[in-house]
Design goal:
The protein has about 750 residues and is α/β, with parallel strands linked by helices. The protein is rod-shaped and about 145 Å long. The relative contact order is 0.06. It comes from Flexilinea flocculi.
Length: about 750
């Protein structure tokens, strides 16, 4: 029977109660909570008794005992109201039809007079009622009140231990849920129960959502974005997120509260190591939702968990080796690793080890000791490859710039150290290089004598209010790396190379410090005399150079400039080369020094030994031979006259902000713009300045020359080896005052470059 008006229903029920009927059940379906409340209220006035399902719950959170309920209905002695049966049936819809039939067709003990009525209001049960098999005599047992249909009804069943408060009308436990319906319910209804998991596989006919875990809560009730899938997190993570999400109802807002962060930024990864594992997961999830570009976006999109993401911070590069943007992506990756302060995973390093050497270098960074070792070991296998060199530039810049060279004007020295550095960083020595060392040694150090003495260069460079940083064992091999460290917008740098005093030991190379402000640094020398093995020895030296730079910065806080130089260099090759033929006995009268790199002997002559020459009272090796002596250095040595032992860098470093105030743009008149060197291999350069300076120094490539002044003209003389343009910088009192170029023409020479 159908009704479109509540009053019609009331009239019908009143009339129906007067007509005997052996079928006492009256199901009354309503489609809105408003009508439910009104119909229930009316039925309670015409029924003599009521059966509340909540009274049939044996505990706070157990379902009502339907057997007892049906027994009470069957034995009812007078008109009875039963509520709220539909709310039990709604979440047990698989048995709803059977229960309705059982009650409808029950053998009622007190229905023989036909006056018994069992009133059961049902909310939104029309489909089930219409599918019930009815005897024609039972059709009047079902009434439909078709008005005020609820389109926004929803029931949410929540696992109680999630301990969340959702927007809606909260009920906790089965008994309270039923009591809520027995009173005056409203939408939406939230049913918290410890047994929610029992309903998770049921297909409901109505808008019923079952939430048995935190992810379900976020996804189905709080509208978590659909692309955030459950496997992205653990139940514990989703549960903790849900606590905040329930307040904000927004993923970004919830994550922002929990981290905390006002807005998303890649700079948040700088705090990664400070975050708890939960906050790390939140930041990964947030990043994944942003669908960023670049390396971060690549690994965030690819990862399915925060653990996989953490691995891909390193390992994601393996997929990008063929990318045209590899170097750019690798730079982004390096910054991310540095921000997150992550060590490379073992699985990543194992995967890299299976690659060919150049690819190994490309996949690694200089942010961990293990990776730096692998880079240098890989480079030793492919050092002739330009691709390997290029890869070093963005994976291990210090190694790249150590190898880069300084474009010295003396091309013979430049070539020598290019090979030396490559062999040192690879921990190998070639026969070709050994031959070059021996050939130079036969010349008794003549190449050294072509260079200015370090002492003379320091004399020209040093001025008041400056300080010398004396670094024991800082050889010329580091010049290009030092230039890389200092040649930025923050510094003015003048680079020179010079020969130290022989023998190449500290004892004979500190005289230039006298009466000058200076500080000494010995850690580099200590490292070179240690037992550190390759490649850790090279890595340790690079780290110490960073420390030396920091020391220069510290000194520049008070000094106008720092003169960075050394007593001597050292040789790794002399340690690697341990041929028996290179060990020579000496006489009993000899005093051996530095593992036999030289000896003091005024009574004997060792000039027949290849590479050994006499200097003052010392017999010094210019190659890698040595006098026989017990023991041997393990890392590096010095005392001899090989180029790496005897040539040192001299750098004058000043902060640009200091000199910019005093820098003078002097007008320079060059009196000798074109000079013919003739047969003397020297030229005298003359010029005038608009200002008056008592002392002026000319800086030409790797050398400095003091200028003589007479009648307003400045002059200096310099040796040349070839024709070409010669760039001259002028300095006075530590300040660059200008520069100019001259053209040198040298006889029949066909070279276009210029050497000093």
């Amino acid at each position: 029977m159908q009704f479109t008006d509540l009053e019609q229903l009331k009239v019908y029920l009143q009339q129906d109660a007067q007509v005997p009927d052996r079928f006492p059940v009256r199901y009354i379906n309503v489609d809105s909570m408003e009508m439910w409340v009104k119909v229930k209220a009316h039925l309670s006035t015409i029924a003599h008794n009521s059966l509340r399902l909540s009274d049939f719950c044996e505990n706070e959170d157990t379902a009502p005992n339907l057997t007892r309920l049906k027994s009470s209905i069957r034995t009812a002695k007078s008109s009875t109201l039963v509520v709220p049966l539909s709310e039990y049936l709604r979440i047990n819809n698989s048995i709803a039809k059977k229960i309705l039939n059982d009650i409808l067709k029950a053998n009622f003990e007190n229905s023989h007079l036909g006056k018994l009525r069992i009133y059961i209001p049902l909310y939104r049960m029309k489909d089930i009622l219409k599918s019930t098999d009815l005897d024609p005599r039972e059709k009047k047992c079902i009434a439909y009140l078709d008005m005020n249909y609820d389109s926004d009804y929803s029931l949410t069943i929540v696992q109680d231990d999630l301990n969340v408060h959702l927007q809606g009308n909260q009920t906790r436990g089965y008994r309270e849920y039923l009591r809520y319906w027995e009173q005056n319910p409203d939408k939406p209804v939230i049913f918290h129960t410890k047994n929610a998991f029992q309903y998770q596989d049921i297909v409901f006919a109505d808008e019923v959502t079952v939430i048995t875990n935190a992810y379900d809560l976020l996804r189905h009730h709080l509208h978590l974005p659909a692309d955030v899938v459950q496997q992205f997190g653990t139940e514990a993570q989703w549960k903790e997120l849900a606590q905040s999400y329930c307040e904000t109802r927004n993923l970004e807002g919830a994550i922002g509260v929990l981290l905390p962060a006002n807005q998303y930024s890649e700079s948040l990864f700088q705090d990664w190591f400070k975050y708890s594992s939960f906050k790390q997961w939140l930041l990964w999830l947030w990043t994944k939702q942003k669908h960023l570009g670049g390396y971060l976006g690549h690994i965030a999109d690819k990862s399915e968990s925060v653990d996989e993401f953490t691995y891909l911070v390193h390992g994601g590069v393996l997929d990008l080796l063929a990318s045209k943007n590899f170097e750019h992506l690798a730079s982004q990756r390096r910054k991310l690793i540095a921000d997150m302060k992550l060590q490379p995973p073992k699985a990543f390093l194992e995967a890299v080890a299976d690659l060919e050497p150049v690819s190994q270098i490309m996949c690694l960074t200089d942010l961990s000791q293990k990776e730096k070792r692998m880079i240098l070991q890989a480079f030793s296998k492919c050092r002739s490859s330009n691709s390997a060199r290029n890869a070093l530039k963005f994976t291990f810049p210090e190694a790249f710039y150590y190898l880069a060279g300084s474009n010295l004007q003396n091309k013979k020295i430049e070539s020598y150290f290019s090979i030396y550095r490559e062999q040192k960083i690879s921990n190998e020595i070639s026969d070709i290089f050994l031959q070059e060392v021996n050939d130079l040694a036969k010349e008794n150090g003549s190449l050294l004598w072509e260079l200015d003495a370090r002492n003379a260069i320091v004399d020209n460079l040093y001025h008041n209010n400056e300080v010398i940083l004396f670094v024991d064992a800082l050889g010329i091999e580091y010049l290009s790396l030092l230039q890389y460290m200092f040649i930025t917008n923050a510094y003015d740098v003048e680079s020179r190379i010079g020969r130290c005093n022989l023998p190449s030991t500290t004892e004979f190379n500190t005289d230039f410090l006298s009466n000058r402000k200076h500080e000494k640094y010995y850690k580099l020398d200590e490292q070179k005399h240690s037992s550190t093995n390759y490649p850790d020895n090279v890595i340790a030296e690079f780290e110490l150079l960073k420390e030396i730079k920091a020391k220069v910065d510290e000194l520049l806080q008070t000094a106008s400039a720092v003169i960075l130089t050394a007593d001597h260099g050292t040789s790794r090759m002399a340690v690697l080369y341990r041929s028996q033929s290179s060990v020579h006995p000496c006489k009993e009268s000899a005093q051996l020094e530095k593992y036999g790199r030289y000896c003091i002997d005024t009574s004997n002559d060792y000039s027949e030994i290849e590479g050994c020459f006499h200097y003052n009272n010392y017999w010094i090796f210019g190659n890698y031979s040595r006098f026989a002596e017990k023991g041997a250095p393990r890392c590096e040595t010095h005392g001899g006259a090989s180029l790496e032992e005897a040539i040192v860098p001299i750098l004058r470093i000043s902060k640009k902000e200091f000199v910019s105030i005093k820098r003078t743009a002097e007008k320079i008149t060059v009196l000798t713009p074109d000079i013919n060197a003739g047969m003397t291999n020297t030229v005298t350069v003359a010029f005038k300045l608009s200002g008056n300076y008592s002392t002026v120094t000319a800086i030409i490539a790797d050398q400095t020359r003091p200028c003589e002044v007479s009648n307003g003209e400045y002059r200096f003389t310099v040796a040349v080896k070839s024709s070409g343009q010669l760039l001259v910088k002028l300095r006075s009192n530590g300040i660059i005052i200008g520069e100019f170029s001259i053209k040198v023409i040298k006889g029949i020479s066909s070279k276009s470059d210029f050497d000093i």
